[in-house]
Amino acid sequence: MKMTDKNIEQIVEYVDGCASAEKTAQIEEMMRCDEALAVTVRRHSELKEMLTSLPVQSCGSELGDKVRARLHSRGRNFRRMNKLHRFAAGLILAACLGAVVSMVYFDGSPEEKTPVLAMVAEVQPVQFDTYRQTEAAPVKKAVIMAPRRERDVAMRSVVISVKVEDRATAEKRLTQALYNHSLLGSLTLTRNETSSGYHFPVSGSSLASLAREISPILTGNDNHITITDYSNACNFELDNIKGDQIVSVFTANKRGDTALALAAAQVENSIAAGLTPEELAITQPVLAATPCEPADNFGTVSVFIEISSQ
Amino acid sequence: MKLYRSGDSSALGVLLERYQSRLYNSILRICKNHDDAMELSADAFVKAIENVERFEQASGFYTWLFRIGVNGALNFVRRKSRFKFFSFDGFTDAEQSGVYEPGSAAPGPAEDIERKERETLLTEALGRLEPNHRTVIVLRDIEQMSYEEIAAVLSISLGTVKSRLFRAREALRNELRDYYEND
After folding, report:
1. Nearest Cα to A306, choosing from A244, A235, A236, A214?
2. CA distances (Å), A306 to each of A225, A285, B175, in order?
3. Residue B6's CB: how many other CB atoms inside 10 A?
4. Confidence category of residue A232, pLDDT binned at 50, 70, 90
5. Mean pLDDT of chain A
6. B108 touches A: beta carbon within 8 Å
7. What is the pLDDT of residue A13?
8. Which residue has the higher pLDDT, B127 or A236?
9. Lowest mean pLDDT among A162-176, B83-97, B129-143
10. What is the count of residue pairs from A and B with beta carbons less than 8 Å apart?
11. Inter-CA distances, A30 with A20, A24, A35, Å
12. pLDDT tens, A117-157?
């Protein structure tokens, strides 16, 4: 008989006792006609019977003990490895975050200049929603996503207008701060009945500590700050700035994040004022009346503080 | 398995008791060495338990465990077959392992001696088969697996299981030609 796949399957099923009655009858009929097939089937059946009767080798408790021991030691290793994996995963995650932040901050396209706060304004409404929903302070995070180089404000001059209840005390405190920073020698003081103007140059790196000292006088809500950008001759103006916000802005200046701090202060104040996202508009930088060229004294900022009575 | 997955570590004992001998016996027939079979069986258990999350209930733990164990044994045998090991004292792996119980000097009735000789011949012949043939015979005729289970363990189709089984039996019959001729 010619062995086809179908015949082979039938023979196997017959030998294994898995063939249907119909197939069994067919095979037995074929075996009657084909002696070679009959021998094959008989030998296979004998083999099967012999194999089935082979003694089962017992492994006793040795295997169970081995498995338990291995699971136990692997459990220890697994826990150890798990700690290592978590540490490694943390490192990788940190590296990835670092890479992303670097890419965002240093995107390698300094030639594409975008107005600083215009860019901030683009992302702001989204961040405002987030801020309102989470009660957290994602505003700064959001602004951080703007490319750093384009966000920098090369501070040329700062004008702070402060309205105080007790003008004399505020002037004393400011004078003390200027004295502490050895700035009285370069101070130009102008006074009239309603206000006093303190004009002095200061190095950018001293701005933050100076601001910290004068922040107690910035208690009112209607203070105003104007920062003139060194590089693109733009003015950034912010109303209702508070003492701590000015400290933030000047501290940020050391990191090159002045615009960020300004924007953050703007958003904070807008939210505090209960503005809706639609009403929230970041003060756009305005072109200074007279475009200024970068001066030689890049690190020096011209500061004008005007103190007036409320 | 459900108990073990739910954190009941005592279920491990039940799993071991239920499957260890069957798995060990099958792997022993495939790799022909007690120590190797013990290691491979333990490996299979550990892998099956450690990857318990990946175990699909539908396939059945038994099939899953055998799939890991048998494939591990087959890989081991294939790797080992590339290198030949010779023992200085002239014993083969199988003889050292105690798999064979050659008409072992143990006194007894003539039928018993004859049965043991037959088992020895059969075991030796089985050991000479190609690993794929040996495995399918072990799973079907010794472990008594269904065709479906064998197909699942070896990741082959039902038709392939049957045709491989037929060819494996033919090969085994060929190995035992002398025995049949003398019979």
Report:
1. A214
2. 10, 21, 109
3. 8
4. low
5. 71
6. no
7. 92
8. B127
9. B83-97
10. 100
11. 15, 10, 9
12. 444 444 443 333 333 333 433 333 333 333 334 445 667 77
Closest CA to A15 of B165, B97, B48, B112: B165
Beta-carbon contacts of residue B62 (< 8 Å; ≥ 6 apart): B19, B149
ipTM of the complex: 0.76
To 5 degrees, how large is the angle CA A103–CA A109–CA A112? 130
Flag whether residue B99 sits within 8 Å of chain A, measured between CB atoms. Answer: yes
* pLDDT score of B150: 92
Tell me the two tokens of residue A189.
């003081």
Q: How many residues does chain A have?
A: 310
Q: b/e map of B32-60 (b: 16 or more CB within 10 Å)?
A: bbbebbbbbbbbbbbebbeeeeebeeeee
Tokens of B167: 């060819």
B16–A63 C-beta distance less than 8 A: yes
Q: Is the pLDDT of residue A257 over 80?
A: no
Mutate to test the interface with B, among A1, A27, A56, A58 (most CBs of B within 10 A): A56
**From CA A250, how far away is CA A262, in angstroms rounded?**
10
Give the closest of B25, B45, B99 to A67, CB-based: B45
CB A117 within 8 Å of CB A284: yes
Phi, psi of B41 (to 5 degrees): -65, -45
Strand ordering across the sheet containing A300-309: A188-191, A195-203, A300-309, A155-164, A224-229, A234-239, A286-287
Q: How far is CA A237 from the centre of its chain?
A: 28
Give the separation between CA A249 and CA A284, rounded to whole angstroms.
17
Bridge partners of residue B18, in order along the sequence: none
Closest CA–CA distance from residue B75 to any residue of chain A (Å):
20
Q: Is B179 on the interface with A (CB under 8 A)?
A: no
According to the 3-state scheme, what is the secondary structure of chain A? Answer: CCCCHHHHHHHHHHHCCCCCHHHHHHHHHHHHHCHHHHHHHHHHHHHHHHHHCCCCCCCCCHHHHHHHHHHHHHHHHHHHHHHHHHHHHHHHHHHHHHHHHHHHHCCCCCCCCCCHHHHHHHHHHHHHHHHHHHCCCHHHHHHHCCCHHHHCCCEEEEEEEEEECCHHHHHHHHHHHHHHCCCHHHCEEEECCCEEEEEEEEEHHHHHHHHHHHHHHCCCCCCEEEEEECCCCEEEEEECCCHHHHHHHHHHHHHCCHHHHHHHHHHHHHHHCCCCCCCCCCCCCEECCCCCCCCCCCCEEEEEEEEEEC
